[in-house]
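README: folding subset

This subset contains proteins for which both the sequence and a predicted structure token string are available. Records are stored as plain text. Below is the entry for Immune-associated nucleotide-binding protein 11-like (231 residues), shown exactly as it appears on disk.
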Amino acid sequence: MSAKYGSQAVCSPGRATTKTYNVLVVGYKGQGKSATVMKLSGDLTYEGKNDKNAHKSFILKEPSSCTVQVVDTPGLGSLSTSDRKILGRISKEARCLQHVDAILIVFKMGRIKSTQLKAVAQFRNIFGDNFLQKSIIVLTFADDIKQKNTTINEFIANSPETFQSIHKDCSERIWCVENSDWEDREEKQGELMELIKSVETVPYEVPDAERIFIDTDMKKWAKLQGKLFTM
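--- output ---
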């Protein structure tokens, strides 16, 4: 297992590790991936790794001993590195893991645009056609819901059709993070673990080789989602 950055931590100190959860965090640049990892790990100094994969672990207060390793991947849309290279790095990292228990796809609430939705089509190329069955949607800056006096269901109903389709293909698994509230970290960890455990038994293997990232594949994926992207 690759472990270039960060380290692992067991959930119950003094007990042998019985389970390791490997979680990949992916998304478009600027959506709040690193902030999400920072909140989960409790490391307020964490700022992410530009154009690199970063490993972070966090401790859960639950009866069983376990390790939760979160891999914070570089975001697509970088000005310094092509999406093709970034996808290659993410693919290589995923294939180095012994197993992938869940994939977190991060979107910034109130800012779901075609570029972020196209990123999901690109991830399909490296994770396979069925990767959404193993995925959880993460909505960052969910404080926006309270500020606008609305609900998550209303937000989803008013979101782009492609996003609604992705949400359904993820079996409506969604995890909201209020970035301004750091006092609920343990509670949010528990919520996330329930979602991770709901997909850990879903059969899934990362494709052995990287796929070719071409526009025709993105269009094909868009059609499967019921909406053709404007390329």
